[in-house]
Amino acid sequence: MNFNLFVSLLVNGLAMGMVYALLAMGLIMLFRSAGVMNFAQGMMLAVGAYISYATQVQADLPLYAAIPLCLASYVVFGLIFMACIYLPLKDTKFPAAIVVATMGTSSILSEACTLIWGGEALSVPYLVTNGEGKSAYLTIGGVSIQWQYILTTIVGVVLIFLVYVLFDKLYVGKMMEAAAQDKYTASLIGIPKLVTIAITYAIAISLGCIGGFMVSPVTYCSVSLSSLQLRAFASVVIGGTRSIKGAVIGALLVGLVEAFATVNLSNYKDAVVFILLIVFLLVKPDGLVRSKIGDKA
Amino acid sequence: MIEIRDLHCYYGAIEALRGINMKIEDGAITCLIGSNGAGKTSTLKSISNVVCRTGGIIYDGVDLSHLRDIQIARQGVIHVPEGRGVFPGLTVEENLLTGTVNWHGLFGKGRYDQDLAEVYELFPRLQERRNQLAWSLSGGEQQMLAIGRGLMGRPKVMMLDEPSMGLAPLVVAELFEKIVEINRERGITILLVEQNAKLALKVSNYAYVLEQGCILLEGPAEELRYDPRVVSAYMGTGAH
After folding, report:
1. Which label site among A69, B81, B221, B237 has the fewest CB atoms less than 10 Å from its CB?
2. Of the partner residues B69, B86, B87, the one whose CB lies closest to the CB of residue A187
3. pLDDT tens for residues B92-132?
């Protein structure tokens, strides 16, 4: 493997890892605070991508108008998702009901997108293009890297940092964390549970949609983006099911392993990812990062 | 003053409280004693509106019975739950800060330095452990943390559910001194639920005895302490 190939695989792997990390962070936030394993999380990639297509191609808006409009739509979509899934089922005695509801929502969204935009994969413009509308490349010392991958990595890092700031530095993040750890006590001391859960949904769903916004120029925009959900699940299992930090590490690992597997094993890259998952389930079923809450003897 | 009129509480088909009437005087310590399953915790949960209940709960002229749980906390009625309910993955100081949410809201920026200093003055142990995660504290420290977090909410009424549960006698004695201090020096009204009747009656001004969802006896704590019915049923033999 020469150096050029190595660098481009590294960047590709990091960028895809960031997309998986955005999905996985959303999964964990919903799981911790609302107890919901969201099977529609992968579909958020597709929703994010279609909204991006609608604003950038159909409405033909320039980027500076399309980006804020997309972000606002993602947040609103997250709140609608919460209103449809969480609110009707929050007092259910069957925890599986919510899981099934997320699966059903995934199908509904998939069919709705197909009805509106058709079944064919649509192309979404790259964020940085050359004169002919193809992706622009950054060339350093003879190594060419697609700008889209670099930007995806940067966006991923920034969002991971923002989530870190939210939970580690901001008062509202501490309240969300408290409500996630003990809902009953949280309501006794006056934490508005509904608000913290709404914020959680808005952020978790938006993270997935932003992942779709960034990845769709490379993968094309179609409902099959939702299959990347499995990569996010793998990341969560590898990283530890309750830790956002673990999920990010797991997602980057999955992205990199997948990228390097394409060199000699491109037909088997799915298999390689899931062999990695199986190895972790056998060797380290708790995940890489343990919960910081220990057991007291 | 909190006035409770004809309070009923239900868990499905089970009626845990069967029409109780109570008055909790301002600035006093009122205790609620009784055996397991008598309805002590249900009374507190009913006041906080986290269970299904009917009846009137009037606090300073405000009808609490139609308010939601977080609105009741905003009125300054703070419930320190049984089993402490500290947030295990937050540090001691972060746990204390969560207590301020009821007066400055989720996004507001309250000035809580003074409140924090007062809690640390009351419980110096918490200051020593301020950066430790709450799960790693001892039971007594967790109870101090739960009470401290309640104080951060600037309560007018504090409802303490079994603060002595699972703690060593020396720790309990220390804790009860602090509870009396909170009441005397800060003028916070306290509604204390306890299994340890002897101790509860010693620190309280007024007491209610609950049995099977009804109030069996009530009176000044000084009198109930020597009431033969209370002594034989709740204090074991030879207790005075």
Report:
1. B237
2. B69
3. 999 999 999 988 888 877 788 999 999 999 999 999 999 99
Rounded distance, CA A290 to CA A30, Å?
18
**Residue range(s) occupied by CATH 3.40.50.300 in chain B:** 1-76+156-240
Domain ranges, ordered by start, for chain A = 3-227
Chain B residues with beta carbon closer than 8 angstroms to that of A171? 97, 106-107, 109
pLDDT in tens, B53-80: 999 999 988 899 889 988 999 999 999 9
Q: Considering all CA atoms of chain A, what is the largest pairwise distance in Å, rounded to the nearest integer?
A: 66
Residues facing residue B9 across a β-bridge: B17, B53
Q: Using CB atoms within 10 A of its CB, is residue A134 exposed (0-12), middle (13-18) or buried (19+)?
A: exposed
Instruction: Report the alpha-carbon distance of residue A203 to residue A210 in Å, rounded.
Output: 10
pTM greater than 0.90 (yes/no) = no
Domain B1-76+156-240, architecture per CATH: 3-Layer(aba) Sandwich (3.40)
User: Which amino acid would we find at residue A149?
Assistant: Y
The alpha-helical segments, DSSP class H, found in B81-186 are 92-98, 101-104, 113-122, 124-128, 139-152, 169-186
Query: How far is B29 from A13, CA to CA, in rounded Å?
Result: 64
- CA of B79, closest CA in chain A: separation in Å? 6
Amino acid identity for residue A141 in this structure: G
Most A-contacting residue of B98, B116, B191 (CB-CB within 10 A), to test interface: B98
How far apart, in Å, are the Cα atoms of A231 and each of A54, A170, A211, A256, B142?
A: 26, 30, 13, 12, 40
Distance of CA B74 to the CA centre of its chain: 16
Contacts 24+ apart (CB under 8 A), B232-238: B233/B35, B234/B33, B234/B34, B234/B35, B234/B197, B234/B198, B234/B209, B235/B197, B235/B198
